[in-house]
Design goal:
Number of helices: 12
Number of domains: 2
Strand content: 15-25%
CATH topology of the largest domain: TIM Barrel
Low-confidence stretches: none
CATH superfamily of the largest domain: Dihydropteroate synthase-like
Order of helices and strands: EEEHEHEHEHEHHEHEHEHEHEHEEEH
Length: 373
Amino acid sequence: MKRKTQKISVGNVKIGGDAPIAVQSMCATRTTDIPATLAQLKLLESAGADLIRVAIDSRKDVEALRELRKECKANLVVDLQENYRLASDLAPFVDKVRYNPGHLHHHQKELSVRDKVKFLADTAGEHDCAIRIGVNFGSLDPAQKEQGVDSSDVALASAVQHCELMDEFGFTEFLVSLKSSNPNAVIAINKEFAAKRPQTPLHLGVTEAGLLPEGAIKTRIAFEQLLSQGIGDTVRVSLTLPDSEKDKEIFVAKEILADVEAGRFRSVPEFLESGLNVISCPSCSRVENGKFVELAQEVKKVTEYAKEHDLTIAVMGCRVNGPGETDDADLGLWCAPNFVNLKKGSEELGAFPYDEIIARLLEEVDALIAKKS
């Protein structure tokens, strides 16, 4: 039975309480490319998206959003990055604002987190917007991280802290997401949060689920375990896809929801962390080079020979989450406009052109296999 959380409004969609589980996705195009973003919005709307997210990182993005809103009636969610102050400029054009507690420290370091969150809550309240507190294991609040034992503890503490700030400010139209690329971590932390904050609606997702079919499998494992226990009010399937296939995120989500509702469970009880694990982030408007999706596909293909080895390779598309999200992988790649950064754990190995990175990656894969053997 679905737990009875607080019901909030996001545009014309209700989330939480007895409302149906809402399905959402995110535009992969650059927000300033208005024709391409409009086409993506229409693609996702046609697939049945209840909410559609776009990324905002500059005032040019805000101006583009103003034009997009004139042509689009969808329920829009804006993904704030480091510049939380843009919330006051974009709030009139959107239905929900998502911020990451781990990104609030980048600007105006002299201001407290409390003051920044109050600004966001006041702005959202003034413009009748909902808020998502979006916590990612790969981009955690550094102040919290210094105190936590592991990423899960830090993520949970951060989410609870920001919920308590919303309570203090009297802002009720909010929900929380707690995301990791590991389905088992997603299951565990969302169960724990639901026990601590039973009234707070939850947005479910496995971030950097990766390419098909593995990305859908990882997501299904988490969703089946949580939704069957009544945990989850809205979902997003995060897949690495070409722009023209972004609607597959909606189709996969709807298929999982239908199966859970009908009692059809296809996943294993637990995600088994053995063998090669290629993690890649969902293509989104923050990706700085369109070759990112091709690179992720190529990494998966050329490392197939290592499938029996316990290695994790992370392929990230941008500077926002790339550096942090790759820290826990054996090898990590995060993409810049003209080069790819290669890492071994948290150690930086250098930056390489797109046409050279695969050969360099395979050197490191072979070295790790030899070392572990």
